[in-house]
Amino acid sequence: GQNIDQPTEMTATEGAIVQINCTYQTSGFNGLFWYQQHAGEAPTFLSYNVLDGLEEKGRFSSFLSRSKGYSYLLLKELQMKDSASYLCAVDGGATNKLIFGTGTLLAVQP
Amino acid sequence: SQTIHQWPATLVQPVGSPLSLECTVEGTSNPNLYWYRQAAGRGLQLLFYSVGIGQISSEVPQNLSASRPQDRQFILSSKKLLLSDSGFYLCAIRDSYEQYFGPGTRLTVT
């Protein structure tokens, strides 16, 4: 079967670093995506990993280990505006369909 | 770069009424197009995807249908809405490896 797991909620402090984990089990793999979704808005693309390792993009980094079926999103120098849901999604490969996790709601506190 | 338009932005419809949501895309040709639904507090559920004009694949059996009459137009329809059809409907486009979402339509069935 296809399964994506993420923690439901996390809390972190402004200025700190937070790591949001995602584990997956899919029949195929053609890349892993992270999206940010603020309440009431559409998801916005953050990152894409298809090879093992760390991809850095400003304050956000994403890591992938295909052998472990594991990824994380690292947010540095947290700001209040980073309070949002973070969605992990896997491309199962067959027809470019993304399978989404239920998302992690991150609350950044002062 | 691509632009995704969705309308209407919000919609309140009574149970049993018909539905038509439209998504149009600019800035690309022959894209893969997707309809997702996000119920309140839930993850993203893929409803339909299309790899070309007139080609529709359904992911979840339900009272919704989709059509793609033109390359950059994707329509989501229902003949009779149910209360459970309430949610945030998102159109998405796949461009190489990135997937982008439109602004969404928030549907409330009363």
Molecular structure report:
The complex is a heterodimer of chains A (110) and B (110). In chain A, the strands form 2 sheets. In chain A, strands 2, 4, 5, 9, 10 and 11 form a 6-stranded mixed sheet that branches. In chain A, strands 1-3-8-7-6 form a 5-stranded antiparallel sheet, with no helix packed on it. Helix content of chain A is 0%, strand content 56%. The mean pLDDT of chain A is 94. The N and C termini of chain A lie far apart (41 Å). With 110 residues, chain A is mainly β. Chain B has strands at 3-7, 10-13, 19-26, 32-38, 44-52, 55-58, 64-70, 73-78, 87-95, 98-101, 105-109. Chain B starts with a strand and ends with a strand. The radius of gyration of chain B is 13 Å and the shape is globular. In chain B, strands 2, 4, 5, 6, 9, 10 and 11 form a 7-stranded mixed sheet that branches. Chain B is built from no helices and 11 strands. Helix content of chain B is 0%, strand content 62%. The relative contact order of chain B is 0.34. Chain B is an all-beta fold and 110 residues long.
Characterize this entry briefly.
The complex is a heterodimer of chains A (110) and B (110). Chain A is mainly beta and 110 residues long. Helix content of chain A is 0%, strand content 56%.
List keywords for this structure.
heterodimer, A: 11 strands, 56% strand, B: 110 residues, mainly beta, 7-stranded mixed beta sheet, 4-stranded antiparallel beta sheet, 11 strands
